[in-house]
Amino acid sequence: MEKVQNNKQQEEFDFSVQRPTKSEKFIALVSYLPTLLVPIDFLILNNLIYTLPQLYSLNDWVILAIFITWIALPYIIWIVIWFVIRKRSTFINEVGKAAFNFGFSFLFWLTMIILSIIAFYLITIKAYPSDLILLSILAIGLFTFIVLPFFLLIIFGTTIAGIVMTLKGKFFHVPLSFKYFKYKK
């Protein structure tokens, strides 16, 4: 029994020592694209909502559904692709796990920021009389236009760093990401 475990460890060790090929690096690189698209999606959707008058006639829930679908669809496509190709290479599997953990942690933190903006808005509206609503809208605007873009810029930079590390053939472990899937260090 112990000999079988040693053989498995040896096979895994030998397989992980191999340098990833260019095609493996490219496939692993694709795993970061959904996270790279999210800040761009925010900019596009934000501009669409303000520039297209047809969107004003839609229900808020319809706009929210379009927004969530637009952000979730690249992740769903990547998960399906990753489940199909993860057995091909240890490198693809490990980078896919790291990118998956990073992407979903990013979505978690982004959701927390958006919920905090909404909570701040609701608390401010209830706490202050109507003459201070302008102050609350100003505070929410500053928070929305400073904190959220700063967060998206950090995510964009971290994604670019992950892409560069993947092209070098190394794993990129992002701080503050939850480990939904365990991966090698």
UniProtKB/TrEMBL annotation:
Taking the record's annotation, the residue ranges forming a coiled coil are none
Keywords in alphabetical order, please: Membrane, Transmembrane, Transmembrane helix
> Organism, per UniProt?
Staphylococcus argensis
What InterPro entries does the entry give? MamF_MmsF
Indicate what this protein is called per its UniProt record: DUF4870 domain-containing protein
Q: What Pfam families does its record include?
A: MamF_MmsF
Organism placement in taxonomy: Bacteria, Bacillati, Bacillota, Bacilli, Bacillales
Q: Where in the cell is it found?
A: Membrane
Record keyword Transmembrane helix present: yes
What's the superkingdom here?
A: Bacteria
